[in-house]
Amino acid sequence: MKVILHDLDTIHSERLLTKCDAIIEADGKYAPCKGCFGCWTKHPAECFIKDKLHTACRILGRADELIIITKNLYGAYSTQIKNVMDRTIGSSTPLCTYRKGEMHHTLRYGKHNIMKVLVYGDITEQEKATFTYMAKRNAINDGYRETEVLFFESASEAEAAL
Questions:
Q1: Superfamily designation of domain 2-160
Q2: How many Cβ atoms sit within 10 Å of the Cβ of residue 18?
Q3: What's the pLDDT tens digit per position in 95-113?
Q4: At a CB cut-off of 8 Å and minimum separation 6, what does 153 contact?
Q5: Do the Cβ atoms of 134 and 147 come closer than 8 Å?
Q6: Where are the alpha helices (DSSP H) in 22-122?
Q7: Where would I find the beta strands (DSSP E) of the chain?
Q8: Structure letter (DSSP) for residue 90
């Protein structure tokens, strides 16, 4: 399954939906993670907060290909994208295992193929290096075999790259 997670305007979702199986809009119209870990233990892969991210763990957890389109924020994901990622911790379990010689949480849905991150906006060379390192670490933690990070000046260029 190919999933796109983006922080673009809602008008982009209709066009993007033709290029994937599922879309998660990081539009900020949802609650932030409360840190209760219920999605790990009480009701696996399901957030107790009944909003549009209620089952985001399952959607992202089952993605063979995840494409994240995000505005650069000082060499990191936009706050909207980060909030969605925080709410999807339930795609792993509280148990640990070794991946690539490092300890990580056991994946609830198994390994995935590729995580692509399309970053738009002003970005310095240092921020590019920071972003690339962070995205690769996130991909390992979430069980992706490959990572690709691309940088664009505008959101429309990032969207066109799909």
A1: Flavodoxin domain (3.40.50.360)
A2: 7
A3: 999 987 899 999 999 899 9
A4: 120, 121, 122
A5: no
A6: 56-61, 79-86
A7: 2-6, 22-25, 65-71, 92-99, 102-107, 112-120, 144-152
A8: G
Q: Residue with structure tokens 């000046």?
A: 153
Residue type, 121: G
Which stretches of the chain score pLDDT less than 70?
none
CA–chain centroid gap for 103, Å, is 20
User: Residue 137, CB half-sphere, CA atoms under 13 Å: how many?
Assistant: 8
Domain ranges within the chain, ordered by starting residue: 2-160
User: What are the structure tokens assigned to 143, written together?
Assistant: 């069980």
Q: Is 126 helix (H, G, I), strand (E, B) or coil?
A: helix
> Which residues partner with 119 through β-bridges?
70, 151
Beta bridge partners of 25: 6
pLDDT at 100: 78
